[in-house]
Amino acid sequence: PTPITEHTVPWPEADVTRFTEEGLWAGAAIGTLLREVADRDPDATALTDGTGLRLTYGELADRADAAAVRLRGLGIARGERIVMQLGNSWEFVVLLLACLRAGVVPVMALPAHRRAELTYLAVHSEAVAIAVPDRTKDFDNQRLAHDLAADVRAATGAGWRVLVAGDDIEPGSVDLRSLCGPPTDRAGFDMPSPSSRDVALFLLSGGTTGMPKLIARTHDDYAYNARASAEVAGVTSESVYLVSLPAGHNFPLACPGILGVLLAGGRVVMLPSPEPVRAFATIAAEGVTHTAVVPAVAGRWLERAAEHGAGQLASLRVIQVGGARLADELAYKVKPVLGATLQQVFGMAEGLLNFTRLDDPAETVCTTQGRPLSPFDEIRIVDEQDRDLPDGQAGLLLTRGPYTPRGYYRAAEHNARSFTDDGWFRTGDICLRTPEGDLVVAGRDKDMINRGGEKISAEEIENLVYQLPSVSQVAAVAMPDPLLGERVCLYVVPRAGETVTLEEIRGQMESAEVARFKFPERLVVVEELAWTKVGKIDKKALRADIADRLKAEL
Ligand code: J2J
């Protein structure tokens, strides 16, 4: 595989020096930082997963080292990539830390991803391995992981190992439970650490293009991201953090998430899903103090607590909500109903994180999406011609900073559009800044649908639908939804004499083997799409149209 650095965009040397001299970048690999934490208090509990397993810091660090050695033993070398698609389990954490220790670079896939996404991720990153659960509900993840081998090998010319977490390990799979098990000796524990400037992992972009872009995050920038987030969320060695969102997302991974909590010496609790009955019981049993959810989950938790009381949530101090816009009305209910302080998080896998502060007045916490994490984050709000707008006026948000990389991985052409010449990232979010410096997300200027925090590229869906011969024109747009915020609605112009149905379209998505959360949930058949003056499909008009139709149906 190609060395990662051939396709990444580094920060300018002057910034590297500045971030290092200012003490933001620690100059150490994440595994090294974690070992320091473990050595300070090896007997403190680091990780539990609700199945009875408890690992101390000493045990976790040893398992990470042992698993790093075993990865090397499988022939997976420093700098090579591995697609990670594990559920929220202890194996997720141990394998992640092992990769960080060995300098093997995980590509953070989502549990919902299927053949289309996994093949793309593996091929684009030139991965040599994949880590999956044996199965999830009705899906055989292990089978698919093996089925990918031919396509991936043909594209990369490299090997393909399948690492499996679960009881049902097929011949040819590597058993992750033993790979992540305790060490038998300490041979190889002294292997050299990766450089702090190496790529630590790949996150996936929210995606406005056909397939998600990969975001290369370095040890230096990601450790800073995690540690600074822990500080702003009030996470200490006393904190207990519940992971119930898919752990491969940036939010539960490092904002502060798993890495921020571990680097602060706190305890991480892994739970497979945010379903309220089990989540509340786990919060009570483990004494959870901090957690992160998307607005849709916050809504379900509020309902549950309103009906059954919030007695189980007594230990919960901070509930972070982010990933999509939290309605102000819902925000105002959080503290009274759940009893925990709300922290709004407006973040992105590309870097920039905004948080409301724990001591902000209620109005700021409930009506804004907070302000940048770092004093070194730079923010601009501009018009279509990149001219700066005054506070209070909504415009396009641009950013640069110590944990916002200067380009996507292996995407030179796309980078020319997503970044300005002087390195500002075009977030595609439309925001305004209050006089106090807090950001309010007012909309977006990117062709994406935010379904309960899961980002769906309209272009990707449209490309799939265009493969149906009965379709002449298609536009995917967001339709408002009381539960998820948005869902995917399709406007389709059929070819003359043809009919198109939603079932047929969903069948097409099914045979394309893409993640189910992307499947369109509503179809509007029209004779003509709406067009703007410059000849582009007028998605704003289509969004307004479906919103009107839904209102009329009420
Ligand atoms: C409105 N829109 C928001 C918010 C994200 C923490 C939290 C979230 C993400 C995330 C993340 C929003 N209000 N509070 O990585 O570390 C929308 C914006 C943004 C896009 C990024 C984290 N919080 N958004 O959601 O990379 O449109 O990251 O640009 O998945 O989600 O999506 P993603």
Automatic annotation (TrEMBL):
Family matches, as InterPro entries: AMP-bd_C, AMP-bd_C_sf, AMP-binding_CS, AMP-dep_synth/lig_dom
Span of domain AMP-binding enzyme C-terminal: 460-536
PROSITE patterns: AMP_BINDING
Cleaved signal peptide residues: none
Pfam families according to UniProt: AMP-binding, AMP-binding_C
Keywords: Ligase
Keyword Isomerase annotated: no
Domain AMP-dependent synthetase/ligase: 35-409
Gene3D superfamilies given in the database record: 3.30.300.30, 3.40.50.980, Luciferase, Domain 3 (2.30.38.10)
Protein family (similarity comment): Belongs to the ATP-dependent AMP-binding enzyme family.
Protein known as: (2,3-dihydroxybenzoyl)adenylate synthase
Lineage per the UniProt record: Bacteria, Bacillati, Actinomycetota, Actinomycetes, Streptosporangiales
